[in-house]
Amino acid sequence: MWENSEHLTISGLARPLRVAYLVDLERDAERILDAIFAEAYGRWGGRRTLVVPVLATGIDSRYLKWLYVFDADIIYSFADLSDEAVAYLHETCGPAHLIKHRELSAKTGEVLRYDIQLPISSLLSLSVLPAFRARSWGFEGPPRDIKVLETYWDGSDTPFLRENFGFPFISYSNSEIAKKHPDLFTSTTLIGPNAYSDPMQGKDAHATYLTSESDVLSALGQAGGPLTLAQISDWFSPSWELCVDLRARYTHVVVGDSVDDRLAFWNVYQRLSRPSFWEIGALRIPKSYVENELLFSKVAALILQRGMRGHDGCVRVCLMSCSMDEECLGVISDRLKRSGISTIETLSISSHAVVVPPLNDQEKVTLHTGGMFAEPIQQVSAEFSSSRAPVPAAAPWHMTEAVPPAGLRHGQWMIDLTVDRALDHGRFDNQRDVWIFPRRIRLERAVRIDRDPTARRVEAVHSLRVIRTGSLALANEAGAPKVSISLPEDLAAIRRGLCETLEWVPFDRARSDRPRGRVRVAHAEVSDKGRYLMGVIGMFDSLSSAFNVLMNEFWREELQRLGGVPAEKATDLRNQLIKRLRRKFSQPSGPLNFSDDDAIERLATEALRAGRMIDRERRYVSYGQLRRRWGDSVEAFLAEASDGTEDPDADAYYRDDDRLARSLQRLCQCEVLFQGRDWRCPRCFNRNWIGIEALSRTMTCAVCAREEPASVKGDWQFRANSFLVEAYRDHGTEAAIWALWRLWKGWSRSFYYAPSLRLWRERPANDRTADIEVDAIVVVDGRVHLVEAKSAAKLDSNEIDQLITASKFIRPDVLVIACMDAETDGLKRAVEKLRSKLEVGVEVQLLTFDPGELEPGQFLS
């Protein structure tokens, strides 16, 4: 219902693949970090990879918020994780892949190698060089003689150069990559003296060979010196803006050899604003370099030439260490100052976690490009055709600016998708609902991705994930076949998520009992209560229109007068029944007693008779009555809003009863109300209702067929749709609508829901009673709300147990107790009991009814 496919769009934003590594710092961390740095340097955007330490008790809690904000597409773990930790990471971080490193057995006497195999192959960092070469970035024109630091395959690399700058040979395991693209770049290669003097080694004729680490440092410290993978891997790469409470335009120099020092060196880079092309954002200097005067002077000259500069044009350095005290850092600072670096700050940090950003306002952490690059964010849009749309082929800016050669454009990037919702529940005409998916229920499993079945790659299907903002993301690559996407209906998506058995790829592929998701239900279907809710809301043009009427103070009171009162609130009818029973059973006071079967049968008869009397009650209202009551509400509003002065024009606007007439017409058009006449037959005394569509000059009694001339006096009369009255009276529909309305008022960009559902733990056979029934599941801006809607302030122990069980299967973010009554002590105790028994991570929200929150009765839509 309400679907309008006109101008529904899907937009895609290209960005790098984001990878986070989990590392046990007590288990071969030095060599694992070597492997991580090498892999990251070879990947576009890889310099801003996050490394998270894992302790014996689990992931270091100081990094959890950063890991969530970082929003990794792949979480690659070198540490064991418990099943609960795996489930937690999937629910909070939502990676496309959370996998454990597979260790290959080493032969006797060999050292174990850490070959990282990401499940999604990333675009190479060297792919940015054609775009760099194609433009002028200064006054000298486009760069032509591009050199990249490399090492020869003879093992001549050094830990300092490998960690701080990277080598293509180590990152790509390919010594021929520079040879194949001499027109694009050449290499400045570190080579051992023996290999350099050996003519049989087959060296690259275009390369510049250097035989010592000192020579390499000298080359790097010269103007126009070679570029490094550490720099290139950050070029033209949208990244998170984390420049908070730290020196964003400083080169951060970490001194020391501890694992904490190495981890701080790597992660602090994400706190920096983007360096310019030749600037170096972070360095780690080992103690041996501090003690070697020659190498230290070379590093100082390198920092002076290529350190990050402030607005004054001077190099600025932040000197930090986890393993050295302030006094030692002060000595090193003095030595750097003597080399010409004037602005130096020292920072002795207690651990690697000092570089973790505070991230107090996570919503402000957004993707950005900056500095002298200022490349535009690559965003492409497409339109839906029916329920399907092509996935926008957004590509990284550097791939569109200058297409890399075939050998350098291999690999994938991610596309973040913003998708309009066909079923728009938005509150504002100028802001359309978009799809924002939760992570605690895998609704994205209901999204259909169609790709050419003959295509050579299908990674897009397996890389679909929900990013931190709730949008979808999937991988793409150059030359990939076109992909289309189909979005599900709300109810189908929520039912699929509740019954999904394969929520994620197994973490440890070596385990036979590896979990693939949380325990969910086997079957879900709409209950009778849910069908009534869908039917009532479906009478209106939109959800907003339904709320504007059903949650309007004036129309709510009129619907109650027309019979839409829940049984729990029908006080007058209850009192009438009790009075009748006391008279029938001759028990004028005290508790009513039904001591034998005959009394119980008479009780049942009287209850049935009372129910039939409700159906025979006269339930209509005249236009004059409506006009009078609405006019009274308008006058009360004007009296309250009056400041002692009169404004005839404004008062006339509010008193204009055409607004009431227009609202009545709309309600009759959508059959919430029926317009007609009620008349009593003078022969059989039957009360007849004649709708406006059946009016003629003659009226016929439905019982005795007596004909009467049509009445010529009196007002139009209106009665409520019997389906709506029944839904309100017998099925608690008003409480469910009110709960939806309260949540809808907190909507920002996305709102959708499933009505009351019956849930089975095992697939039902025949008509087996459901194990659980829930009143509604509502997704508001990606947060899952499990709703229990009550007409009265009661929540018994059985209902509490049902809600606890339901929350274990549904995994909501919020359990909402929505009570259309005043708060009572008993209700508060029940809510506290719920809070104490629910799993960690489930918030309990109590909503109680306040008539003053309803839409004002004088404003009718």
Précis, in short:
By secondary structure, the chain is α/β, with parallel strands linked by helices. 32% of the residues lie in helices and 19% in strands.
For this entry, give a set of tags.
861 residues; alpha/beta; Oxidized Rhodanese, domain 1; 5-stranded antiparallel sheet; 5-stranded mixed sheet; 28 helices
Please give the structural blueprint.
Layout: E1 9-15, E2 19-24, H1 29-41, E3 50-55, E4 58-59, H2 64-70, E5 74-77, H3 83-93, E6 97-100, H4 129-134, E7 147-151, H5 159-164, H6 168-172, E8 186-190, H7 193-197, E9 208-210, H8 213-220, H9 229-232, E10 239-240, E11 251-255, H10 259-268, E12 282-285, H11 287-291, H12 293-306, E13 316-321, H13 326-338, E14 343-348, E15 367-368, E16 379-383, E17 388-390, H14 397-401, E18 412-419, E19 448-451, H15 459-462, E20 465-466, E21 472-477, E22 483-486, H16 490-499, E23 523-526, H17 528-537, H18 543-550, H19 553-561, H20 571-584, H21 597-616, E24 621-622, H22 623-641, H23 648-655, H24 658-669, E25 673-680, E26 687-691, E27 698-700, E28 707-709, E29 717-720, H25 722-730, H26 733-744, E30 751-754, E31 757-760, E32 772-774, E33 776-780, E34 783-790, H27 797-810, E35 814-819, H28 825-837, E36 843-848
